[in-house]
Amino acid sequence: xxxxxxxxxxxxxxxxxxxxxxxxxxxxxxxxxxxxxxxxxxxxxxxxxxxxxxxxxxxxxxxxxxxxxxxxxxxxxxxxxxxxxxxxxxxxxxxxxxxxxxxxxxxxxxxxxxxxxxxxxxxxxxxxxxxxxxxxxxxxxxxxxxxxxxxxxxxxxxxxxxxxxxxxxxxxxxxxxxxxxxxxxxxxxxxxxxxxxxxxxxxxxxxxxxxxxxxxxxxxxxxxxxx
Length: 227
What we know:
This protein is an all-alpha fold.
């Protein structure tokens, strides 16, 4: 995708391999509604509630990356991501929902939609049963996809309705997180498989995991349109 941020070689190859599925995710109607402000507020708040629950499980999946890491560097990067999710990203959801009269307790108690459950449990299952590389492949679409979306909408948005959301993911801190996770993925693959990792049979499996997580991201956006 021309003009997309550079989050590392492995991620770029996985994104390219996902083809139209990646475009369906990063240019979904929900995303375009954020760009031009046409997304109904009800749909946005519904999405935020579900995304808050998603982030609870996503944080747990990143905590599994601490368990799966084989070096201090890997464990440190995974733990920093967990902290960022819990301390920063979830804060956005709490603040916006509080302004709409939704308490943090109500937010945490939000019933999961099936689309949410399917995605989070897929990632957690990969984490429980797979290795560090597989887990990163399942986690990457969410992290870098939001970074790519945020960076694009920061340039293309024609409305300030959802500017706070856009600025969160376009911001320097989140963009650095994306680059850090990309470097973590690159390093993990080279450390375990050497430079030619994309020529090995295991690469196909990792790309399938990445592509499936991307498909589940598409379903998550679609869920957001149907509160």
